[in-house]
Amino acid sequence: MDFEEVIKEAIFQAIKEYGLEKTSIVLEKPDQAYGDYAFPCFTLSKILKKSPMLIAMELEKKLNSPKEIQKIIATGPYLNFYVDRGIFAKDIINKILKEKEDFGKSEKSNKTKKEKVMVEFSQANTHKAFHVGHIRGTSLGESISRTSEFLGNDVTRANYQGDIGMHVAKWLWCYQTFHKKEWPKKDEEQWVAHIYVEAIKKLAENPDYQKEVDKINIALEEKKDKVLMALWKKTRQLCLDGFEPIYQDLETKFDKYFFEKDVEKKAKEISLELLDKGLAKIDQEATVVDLNPYNLGIFLLLRRDKTVLYSAKDIALAETKFNEFKIEKSIYVVGSEQRLYFSQLFKTLELMGFKNAKNCMYVPVSLVRLPTGKMSSRTGDNILYSDFKKDIIDFAKVEIKKRYPEIKQKELDTRALKISIAAIKYDMLKQDPNKTIVFNKEEALNFEGNSGPYIQYTYARASSILRRVKKEQSKKTKVKQKSNNKLLLVNQEFSLVRTLSELPETIISAYSQLSPNIIANYAYSLAQKFNEFYHSCQVLGSNEEKFRLELVEATKIVLKTCLFLLGITALEEM
Which of 79, 220, 264, 333 could make an S-S bridge to 121, C-beta 3.0–4.6 Å? Predict the structure, then answer.
């Protein structure tokens, strides 16, 4: 049952004489103390030439209250509707239990336009470390992808990786100059990161080294030096192989890998075409697009030596995405420090006459900081993923063993990994993507705070209740239920039901704003409401046992959906 539609119809019948359409009626959701739905009377005030407060009082007397609505009360300029809690609860719970994991896809979500979407995220460059900061963009991209798919869109997950360019030239220069013939037997991530950081430091100490790096960068683009290209391929593959276990840990996958080397040739061709058409020009020997008339500065395409920059490659990549993959929307999940860059990119595409420029969307991902400050792969002031993961897992194992001292080692290892990934991802996702965060291990792994493990624990608690019932039922114990057909809900029950009902609109809002934090915050609120209900309302052995068990099961279903959309595994036991 669509309670909003029922209320809108009742309002429409009362105001249609004024020539208003039902589509003009917009409802709000007030704080629970002021009802379940509210109709602001400001728009009617202009038409009727009366104060919205007077209109609200008149409508309160005039409206025919549907059976689904318990009472209607005018409060200031608002007309507040209180639903019949029993009817509302039965309707929502029955819908969830019937639709299960599909709850949230129906009704409003089915009205959204289905699209072919490409989400580009992670973008971990070869010859650099995969550190804590990369986890945020990877987690955001995966969550946006899952939410888009949940709403019926055809999603392609893309990873655009820098496997060539100046950073690679620096790494190869440092290796050939100071580490020739050296090769790691283990800890490849540490080894690769160390060489890159060393290269940056040595170049800072002696700027003359940059000439040697420039020669390597040109040679990489020309692809004529067989020894250099063989080393590049070998070290490139070492890095790519090292990323895959990380993506498995983070429960993400990619349908398409783009590499800079694949669009380099096309990028140079496009740059020269823009030069011929007058959209680009030569400035101090570099090829640029002058975006100063749009307050966007200068967009560099080619260096003085005609080697290709990221900007030109991204133009080529945009054309490839839309022309070859026939997508309708391209979402870029990239660091917020690139805000100006993407404004320049999209404006250049627009000036080129690229018709899909308007369908390119940028999700700025702000920094992840340590308590000690900013992380940087250039300076080495970061935590590598492997070290970070081990630290979190060790902490999680201690917490698990406190609760389950007899747990077997294999199960402990599995559970600790899932809880650790939940802690990391949720802490990255619960914040607005555009907000810088400071990652705190103790807060992220707090089993009782606003954390991934807290939501997993709530899910596990609901599972435990249902397991106990199943066990009792196997002993032929009947589930109690009220003899009274009318369902009377206490505040904690209704607050939980009301929150459950908000899942569909939460998912739509999260996707339309490309903000997974909306789902994370909803999941936390739902977990809180469930635990308030659990501590206040006896489930097993109560007269309301049947309904309350259904409420527990519905909560479990919705929590699992939320965790899935956040890319987090739901655990039956913690």
Answer: 333
- Pairing between strand 69-75 and 154-161? unpaired
Q: How many CB atoms sit inside 10 A of residue 151's CB?
A: 24
CA 33-34-39 angle, to 5 degrees, is 155
- Tell me the per-residue pLDDT of 416-453, one tens digit each, with 9 for 90 and over: 999 999 999 999 999 999 999 988 888 998 888 999 99
pLDDT at 381 over 80: no
Amino acid at site 229: M
Backbone phi, then psi, for 573, in 5-degree steps? -135, 145
- Distances in whole angstroms, Cα of residue 220 to Cα of each of 231, 260, 378, 525: 11, 12, 21, 52
Q: Which residue, among 568, 428, 565, has the nearest Cα to 146 in the 3D structure?
A: 565
Contacts of 370 (CB under 8 A, 6+ apart): 132, 382, 383, 438, 439
Q: Is residue 107 pLDDT above 60, yes or no?
A: no
Rounded CA gap, 525 and 102, in Å?
21
**pTM over the 0.70 mark:** yes
Digit-coded pLDDT (tens) for 473-504: 766 555 555 544 567 789 999 999 999 999 99
Q: Using CA atoms, how far apart are residues 242 and 244, in angstroms rounded to an integer? A: 6
Structure-derived torsion over alpha carbons of residues 426, 428, 432, 436, reported in degrees to the nearest 10: 150
3-state secondary structure of 425: helix
Neighbours of 9 (CB within 10 A): 14
Task: Please answer whether residues 60 and 30 qualify as being in contact, where contact means their C-beta atoms are separated by less than 8 angstroms.
Answer: no
Q: Say how many C-beta atoms besides its own lie within 10 A of residue 350's C-beta.
A: 15
Domains of the chain: 3-83 (3.30.1360.70), 116-374 (3.40.50.620), 402-430+440-565 (1.10.730.10)
Are 524 and 454 in contact by the 8 Å Cβ rule? The answer is yes
Local confidence band at 382 (pLDDT 50, 70, 90 cut-offs): low
Q: How many CA atoms lie within 13 A of 186 on its CB side?
A: 1
> Taking the alpha carbons of 561, 566, 571, 574 in that order, is the dihedral positive or negative?
negative
Residue 485: what are its φ and ψ, rounded to 5°? -70, -25
E strand map for 1-115: 37-40, 69-75, 78-83
